Amino acid sequence: MNYFVSLQSNMKYKYLLIGMVAMLTTTAVQAQQRSGRGVSAATEQIVKSYTDSLAALRHQLDSIQRVNDSLRTESSDGRYFRLFAPTTFYHSGANQMLSLAPRTGDDVTDAVDAAMMSLYLRRPDLVQNTESALRKVGSLRDDVNQEMTQQVELAEKVAPLPELPDEAAPLELVVKKPNFWKFKFDGNLQFLQNYVSSNWHKGGESNYSAVGIATFELNYNDKDRVTFDNKLETKLGIQTSPSDTVHKFKTNNDLLRLTSKFGLQAHKKWYYTLQLLAYTQFARGYKANDPTVYSDFMSPFNLNVGLGMEYKVETKNKNLTGSLNFLPLSFNFIYVGRQDLASRNGIKGDHHTRENFGSSFTADLKWKLAEQILWKTRFYAFTSYDRALLEWENQLELKVTKYISANLFLYPRFDDANNRDDDLGYFQFQEWSSIGLTYSF
User: What is the pTM of this model?
Assistant: First the structure.
């Protein structure tokens, strides 16, 4: 009895075990089938994508080939030119509308005629010409309805690029330090001769004169904010006249002047400026048949230091260039070495110097009036509580050739520190003209 019970229990476990194994086997088979189906779907997707890409590539190649073939045999139909040319009244459209005969049979020509007639009726203001007028001048062609073919040859293979060596040659790089300094020189040597014979019906006397002018400029500009301009001007003119029995030679033009300006850019063409102006003369100055010395080296010597603003003048074509200096704070110093000339320069007593505080203004311009005509002008003004000085120098230069020029010099001056003249008061004036050699670089 117990044996059968035990056998039945073992049979139950055996059947349960067999059932579990069968269930696991079925699950594995189903999983394998599902796995097999997944691999097959992915493969099909890859194959489909590859096939689509091949088809797209084939379509692209076919399109390129069609474009290439069309370019090789590109044609232009001249029957459409009337639609794009300037609006002209052609007879064919009106003849077709008024004729009882059938149309030409050319659909393109008939459509163009109809479009042109519609344009004539709707916008007659756009018609610029007529067929009759074009035929008169002979500019209308009769073969425009013929098809014109252009042969375009395309390169089948691009030319290969030149082969470069594996190791390129070393480059020699030269770095130059910028030079912000500029040097300029202008020189003139002018002559003037006036000969009058002893029996000349109007009288007069012969005289000879010469003047040498040299101008040196050394300027600094860092192209950013700082400028430093220096100009040294030298002039010396000598003349002779037989009527002067006291002096064999006299100076008629004498100047030694230095102008230095240090500028710091404020805005565009405006600069904060510190200016130094110093000038004197080279030799003694005389009048005809008068042994009195009216000027000498360092007698007088003028020094002016001013602080203010400078405006750089430069037109677009650069015909007018220069600067305007407004110096509301200025210090003026005068030194006279010869005591006998002190009173002529506003110095009282036994002193050799005089100082003034005031304001000054300087304008230095160059204006190219024409290709061969240049006007140089300089205006200087200084005023204080007890003195006013104004100088206006004008030089008109006419270039005859590269090395020959003629000059006209006009120089009005006002200085109330000098002795007052009975006729001109405090005004003074100098003028001379000459022709001679010129050189610049």
Answer: 0.58
